[in-house]
Amino acid sequence: MKILDEIAKRIAELEGKIAKAMESGEIDTELKLKKRLYKLKIEAIETLQKEADKEEEMSAMELIEKVKSLPKRPKYLTGVEALDAPGTLEGFESGTFVQIAGASGAGKTTLAMQILANVARYERCYLFSYEMGMRRSAYRLEKLLATEAQRKNLKVRLKGNDIEVIEKIVRIRAREGYRFFVIDSKMKIEHEGHAGKEHEKWSAVSTRLAILCQELDVILILINQISEESEKTGRFALKGSGDQKYDADVILFVVKDEKSGGRVIHCTKNRQENERLYSRPWTLEQEPNYTEVVYEMPQIA
User: What residues does 128 pair with on adjacent strands?
Assistant: First the structure.
């Protein structure tokens, strides 16, 4: 940076003059030079701050051009028709924070496990399994993961449910190439450093997970519950309220039809490229459509 180079040159010259003044015992000259040096260093700091501020802002044209120059973002199919078919989400974009919510027994974990089973055929995945325990986790995974590749690609963690631990593990595994993470479930996450109200705790947790997705460009699925009011009224709201809804990129509600026993997936929020909201039937016994797909989003026109 030319301006900083010039300031650095002036600082070096002043420091040389100060050294000479000290050697000759010219105290007044030394003090004057040190004041000038102090002001010059302040100028250097302010210049650095201005340059940093410039990097954080840009015109709309600069933003569009910058995005065009970036590598295309991958988008992954999940193997679940209600999430992949035309007219749906059509897969998950990298950097997406997904919340899957529903009443107890609706099939939230089953849906997440189906997604993991398919993705594990071609991508390394990570499951934070805090709900099922070791034996139940092993039983369900044995049924779902049919190939050796799937079983090797899926890493499972049963303990360490504080948000600090979760964040650390996601960062480490992301550096190793893991792109998909599932946390089962939000209600088991601890936040020892947060002493506020319950909804504030969940807001803090969801915010940190959303930042992880953006920063590391990973897909993270958090299994959640619906609020007690939603169970009574049939409306869709996440348990714990707070900023969870705003932090999520995609929100999926799994609802059980008590008469037919079938399920419906309602996509009530979608920040992905197509921004599509919809409802689609889904069955717990559905065979995943295993397709090894990693396709790229089109560039901005």
Answer: 157, 183
